[in-house]
Input
Amino acid sequence: MDEKILDCYRRAGKIASEARKHGLSLISENVRLLDVANKIETQILDQGVGLAFPVNIAINEIAAHYSPRHDDALVFKKGDVVKLDVGVHVDGYIADTAASVEVGTNNYSNLIEASQKALQNAIGVVKNHGVLEAIGKVVEETIVSYGYKSIDNLTGHSLDRYVLHSGLSIPNVAHTMDNQKLKVGDVIAIEPFASTGTGHVVSGNGSNIYLCLDSFRMKLVRNQGARLMAQRLSSQFKTLPFAERWCQKVISGSTDVSLKKLAFLGVLKHYPQLVDKGKGIVSQAEHTVLVTEDGCEVMT
Ligand code: MN
Ligand code: MN
Output
């Protein structure tokens, strides 16, 4: 990998890692999710780098995909299991990292440890340049050894410049028959999820997280106002996910209504919350890892 690109990944990784740690320290009873998200994002932007996606804060049975609305009144409650997922990019080179914390209690320490340990073991496989199937196997075996389910329809992913989810899926379960090998220079996010429920997620309510789809569809939007708005969002956020919160200055009127309309027209994707099917409690851990000649480098 080009030395300049490597520097970008390392800088993104360091800032994302600090933001994750700082963010976890802010989470406590009666604190607003919105305040935590805003503080983390401000800390990142103040360093002159970009947000690869909105800060995600997923609680209890929500495994992933929730970011507070601009006027979100939700607060953390005692006993909540919180997944904090942070993304930073430096010149498009992305670091994606997550960790879990319990608010004021210790009922789910093992659940939180299970996803952390699964992540560590998966990194061990990458270090030895194992095949993708071997990563899924060790993730599932580790989580099962704690007595939990590894969520089978959430995966890690490879990262590319300005692309959060590029070609590869990094499995969280065994028997995927995926004999693909990682290549030196591949950058991947590994993200095991441990669940007390079914170990399968379904789509829930909206996440307040959006993505601009191809510009071809944009040209088909007849309503001029809507088309203009879509073009503005596209030039602002390009290929990366963005939050409803971030659109206050880009959209006039109700951001919620406008964004939902654009999603309905097919020019935006509105991500649904991903919720454990059995309403089980979910923990997550995630690092971004670079595959190197002699092993791997954890960037976050
Ligand atoms: Mn993530
Ligand atoms: Mn990820």
In short: The chain has a mean pLDDT of 95. The chain is about 35% helix and 30% strand.
